[in-house]
Design goal:
This protein is an all-alpha fold. It contains seven helices and no strands.
Length: 131
């Protein structure tokens, strides 16, 4: 885990541990945050990234320019592993967004309404095809 990411205001609710978040699900002594484990919080957040309008909001608030936040997004790449993909409700759009967010150009481009609209349309079309 990237410890510097845990100091970011958005991420203060997450404990700074060296353990993989999935391992904490089985630990009854784990701290809960609002009744949720760290893994549950990360799962909820990473799935929100599938929403292009949310990505635009993050960009408009300058989160996508913050180096600690970018490191956190890189850390979340563990959701690409098969043992974690199974927890994603919409793995295609979620993982695509996570991949795109690794690119500086995309983090800038998502501010444009045309990029947001195109990504939203692609997400809807993908969900229709995968029914």
């Amino acid at each position: 885990m990237v410890n510097s990411a845990a100091t970011h205001p958005l991420l203060d609710v997450l404990p700074a541990t060296g353990n993989h978040p999935m391992a904490t699900l089985a630990r009854p002594e784990e701290d809960l945050y609002g009744g949720f484990t760290r893994f549950e919080l990360e799962l909820e957040f990473v799935q929100a990234l599938a929403n292009p309008y949310y990505l635009n909001h993050l960009a408009s608030q300058n989160w996508l320019q913050d180096s600690s936040f970018i490191k956190y997004l890189k850390y979340l790449q563990y959701f690409n592993k098969p043992e974690y993909i199974k927890y994603l409700s919409y793995p295609g759009p979620t993982l695509k967004a996570l991949e795109l967010l690794q690119q500086e150009k995309f983090r800038q481009d998502i501010l444009g309404p045309d990029v947001v609209a195109r990504l939203a349309e692609e997400t809807v079309l993908a969900s229709i095809r995968n029914r």
